[in-house]
Amino acid sequence: MNFLETIFLFFAFQAFVFAILFFIKKKGDRVANILLGIYILLFSYNIAYNVLYWSQLLNSYPFIHLSFTNRIPWVLYGPIVYLYLKRLLYKNKFRSIDLLHFIPLVYVILNYSPFYFLSAQEKIEVLRNGEIRYFSYFHIPYFIHIIIALMLFYCGQLFFSFRHLIKSFNNNRWLNWLSYSFCGYVISFSSYFVLVYFNLLKPGSDYFIGFSMMFFTGLLFYFAFLQPQVFDGLSMDKIIPFKKYRKTGLTTASSTELKSRLLDFMKQEKPYLNHDLRLGDLAKELHISRHHMSQVINENLDSSFFDFINRYRIEEAKKMLLEEDNLNMTEILYSSGFSNRVSFYKAFKKFTKTTPSEYKFRKSSTKTTN
Q: What are the pLDDT digits (tens) for 164-173?
């Protein structure tokens, strides 16, 4: 085992420790924590498996029993990260239909089960003679093509199904980073097999796949241990260890003055009622740069842009709930500036600790009592 492989093995162990900590983590969404723990554990195993493969220890006793088990992480990465994002964005409980995502896993286990149950010596002989196809039930010559297609499918799901929801999520940068890191791994994974297919790379020279996994676990180490608030909703802008606005040229006095102008503009013009409102739109209205506007909201108002805007929208919705009996919930959420029900209910719950219906009922009951 060379020095580089030792480094990879260290990151595999590190990822294993992370996974255990997420399994026992009590703060935050318990189900989401377990899913993330499983996702990290798969990376840990995949890295360790690769190290055994590169160092040629995989074909020796007792590691021979691990042969072809790397197919299991391959078919689970996509479903697990998909269900993790779905859990955070929709708060959906696990349903029986979600089991469909694990059909590829069932195939892998059934397909390789004849080989898995061989003795160590028998496995060594099978691999030495290239007879693995005789020890699989449903051998598919182009199995790796199916794996790549499956991974690309889940990449598409992350960006086409969840894109609009991730933008409105409180900690959208973490989810964006997770999505991009997964797709980055898929690209490196696919590239390796394409290069091997065209004889541009020798089989076994797949260190760059390991680097992509090592990059993921390395950044996760930072966020999970040095800055764990990222998993509990704190904006990543506030936890990255450098002063984001150090060289903007915006003085304290100017920043305070811009804050006052911004609050006056929000009160008088109500730009938050536009569901397409963006940070650049506010900056343009106040004739300042987008970066300065971000600084004012983040530093002076201690908020992210979406939280800042959604707080105003929720206040508007609360007024409508109590004063506009002729409006239904859908009309209220659109009239207050939200573009969909998921964002509306998530923000309402965040800022009021209750649902719109419960809020209206409680306030109405209080008025009746008085």
A: 666 655 556 6
